[in-house]
Input
Amino acid sequence: MTSKLIKDYFRTDKLPHIWCPGCGHGIMMRSVAQAIHNLGLDKDKVCIVSGIGCSSRAPGYMDFNTLHTTHGRALAFATGVKLARPELEVMVITGDGDCAAIGGNHLIHAARRNINITTIVFNNNIYGMTGGQYSPTTPTNEFGTTAPYGNIDKSFDIPELAGAAGATYTARGTAYHAKQLTKIVENGIKNKGFSLIEGISICPTYYGRKNRKGSIVDMMNWLKDNALDIKVASKLPEEKVKGKFLIGEFKNVTEPEYTEEYMKIIERFQKER
Amino acid sequence: MSRNNVDLRIKEELCKGCRICVEFCPKKVLIMKNEKVKIDDIEKCIKCGLCELRCPDYAIYLGGNDNEKQ
Ligand SMILES: Cc1ncc(C[n+]2csc(CCOP(=O)(O)OP(=O)(O)O)c2C)c(N)n1
Ligand code: SF4
Ligand code: SF4
Ligand code: SF4
Ligand SMILES: [Mg+2]
Output
């Protein structure tokens, strides 16, 4: 006995999932399933691909066509799936490490191609699965097992990175703002091109402990208190925006999509034959 | 979804005791007992579904009507 959403879209025999108590990934995985449900997509026409990481375990629980691949390579596999079966709704669930460290190159080139894949990054600002090493989204001066004296690097803004590389839809949500996250995942799926949605997650076990972020509830409250909707922010004076991070839709434009352009070339040569 | 025909259900085996639902329930319906969620006062529940929305483990939900499958 579970809710209809869980029963319909999850492999309930695999629950409870392996994620730690309070891990934000569970909340965001539900938001993704809710978005697919809201759009009324045929489950058999959806393919969800992931790499390696706590976040990348999500497709193991989701009852669609799923592909759990190698670390950093989810977008490479997803590109193959999309070109072989363009009629599928191809989605990627990845982590900040999976997509912005080892998989950073795949990310920028998938974005540059504007291939019709919806990527959702579960960003917990750390490598959760391997025990809390700092990632490309760990804020400067914060701690990880590999940054015992504080992280020197500047962190990536993943939606901005993807948008600059050519993604036609970029947005950010959080595990606290789970309803808004569903909405932007829906809009990302609707975009015919590369969509990058960052969901800010919480990792109480590693990121939280290493950085003394308090309890699970404290970490959720931090998301609540520090996220600012971009539409609201545009109406506020600068001092009220300072120190907050933006959520909402950042980019939504239409440009030629890779798979369609590819098929056009094939059709052109088939006609000439 | 009609709010009248749904009721709050807990699947205790799935609850990992994170307290998220307890804390963010707008009507303070829920409490923790032995590291599991418990309903304290169902009369106060407005069936808003926020507990279900944010439970990372799908252990609490509004059941009945069309929101549930056996
Ligand atoms: C080629 C390769 N290098 C390194 C690893 C080890 N590894 C597994 S998961 C991971 C990082 C995961 O971090 P992230 O993508 O942020 O996911 P999270 O666990 O935080 O959700 C690493 C480095 C691996 N599995 N394969
Ligand atoms: S280590 Fe962190 S990211 Fe991984 S399951 Fe635990 S809380 Fe979630
Ligand atoms: S449905 Fe709303 S009011 Fe009722 S317990 Fe859940 S969060 Fe509280
Ligand atoms: S949010 Fe879910 S897992 Fe956490 S205490 Fe409530 S029912 Fe249990
Ligand atoms: Mg991570």
Notes: Chain A has one domain: 4-272. Chain A has a mean pLDDT of 98. The pocket of iron/sulfur cluster (ligand 3) is lined by residues B 8, 25-27, 29-30, 45-51 (CB under 6 Å).
